[in-house]
Amino acid sequence: MATQEEVFKKITAHAKEFGFVFQSSEIYDGLSAVYDYGQNGSALKKNIKDYWWNSMVQMNENIVGIDASIFMHPTTWKASGHVDAFNDPLIDNKDSKKRYRADVLVEDYIVNKLEAKIDKEIKKAKKRFGEDFDEIQFKSTNSRILNYQEKIREVELQLKKVQENEDMEGFKNLIEDLEISCPISGSKNWTDVRQFNLMFSTEIGSVSDGASKIFLRPETAQGIFVNYLNVQKTGGMKIPFGIAQIGKAFRNEIVARQFVFRMREFEQMEMQFFVRPGEQEKWYEYWKEVRMKWHLAIGFPEGHHKFHNHLKLAHYADAAADIEFKFPFGFKELEGIHSRTDFDLKSHEEYSKKKLRYFDPEINESYVPYVVETSIGVDRMFLAILSNSFTEEKLEDGSERVVLKIPAFLAPYKVALLPLIGKDGLPEKAKEILKELKFDFDCTYDEKNTIGKRYRKQDAIGTPFCITIDHQTLEDNTVTLRDRDSMNQERVEVNDLSRLLSDQVALKNILKKLS
Ligand code: GAP
What we know:
Blueprint: H1 4-17, E1 21-23, E2 35-37, H2 39-58, E3 63-66, H3 75-79, H4 82-85, E4 87-92, E5 99-101, H5 102-129, H6 135-141, H7 143-164, H8 168-177, E6 194-197, E7 201-204, E8 212-215, H9 221-226, H10 228-235, E9 241-250, E10 265-275, H11 280-296, E11 305-309, E12 319-327, E13 330-341, H12 343-352, E14 358-360, E15 365-367, E16 370-377, H13 378-389, E17 390-394, E18 400-404, E19 415-419, H14 426-437, E20 443-445, H15 451-461, E21 465-469, H16 471-476, E22 478-483, E23 489-493, H17 497-505, H18 507-514
Helix pairs in contact: 2-13, 5-7, 5-8, 7-8
The protein binds glycyl-adenosine-5'-phosphate (GAP).
């Protein structure tokens, strides 16, 4: 059986081969941790964004959307805390001149040196004991494994301590004590550990005009905070209300890996919900539940999501949790829900010297609202869907197929029109049906190759339905409708197609489930 790592490699290769994701500027050997979405990838991404936007903005009368600029006044980032505190601990190897994230070096040590030894012991024992091998018992009794597990716990504790105390000297000592060497040069010749700000900067205006340094936003949320009063006033919004936004964010991630999971340029879908002070806990719990339901409504199997409540909180938060998803490389953060208090608005009040208050007629009081935020990366959601949909199947006739079982409402194309052969009037009839269906559904058309090959191609890009037009269609106006997942085919009236498809692929069915 393929390891999770091998499966993940297959998924990334499939994403490229079928037009989902390409390395950015690949003809120049690419740019690390920057990706482009191809014809099928951008369609899937758009459908994910529609699902989020419609469930947040369209379905809630008290949530509105905005589209703020990527460039913002530089003081924004001073007020938000990003200039002073948006850092990663970095260390350089003096021989290879390569730069690493100190915490990742330690995490890699745990995986490559300690967990790898446990795996090796298990593999050896499996070989020795064959069928009778009881892995759970072996892991809980074998003394070598127990020692490695103890060591892992010890290193994790030390790592947590230096991270929490932001102890850069302690970080370096830990790397030296563990005798971690540079994967490139093999040497242990390290610099000190330094904090490195993750924001990209650029200059606005020409240099001779006196250019000033600005940042590419590292989160979309601040565009919402600085517009909070504009929206509240012009929209006549009454607390509690939300402002939603989808847009690009940029972070100079030093360790950029796992495909589109951690990128330097990515897209966020964020919503800030403004509430009365003292009511933030209630709304935090509310949004945790609503957001988990949104994920589950997609139809992933049980056990793919879990909450991870933060014990160590960011300077602005009084509660925070991640929704983690079971990616091929383990459970990792997909979305964050944060109770951000009144930190951001208060800080913007202080730096801008403008009042950002709300007069609450119900209690006859003016206050700076508290904020509960939901924040999810489009690209991570894309990866969650892609990796969960990727399926390799052995068929009864011994052949194999790769199928992306993307939930139908998110699939790039909902339906493919396939004339059985490219003559006898079948292409014309197929195009006539396409002409009607394309008003309501994303359709594709294909007449090249055998019908079997065309089905495989649609399976590989996740098209949930194929409509085959044959000679009988010309006689009785019926077609075969093939279901991607079951591969079942049924004969249906052309006039019924629109209704049948709509029942299966319309986003509104999922939105109804959620309301
Ligand atoms: N406004 C809050 C905020 O930005 P975050 O936990 O730093 O919080 C929110 O980011 C979400 O953005 C994450 O849960 C993740 O889905 C996505 N995200 C963050 N950094 C990312 C990166 N480098 N590449 C892709 N997605 C990222």
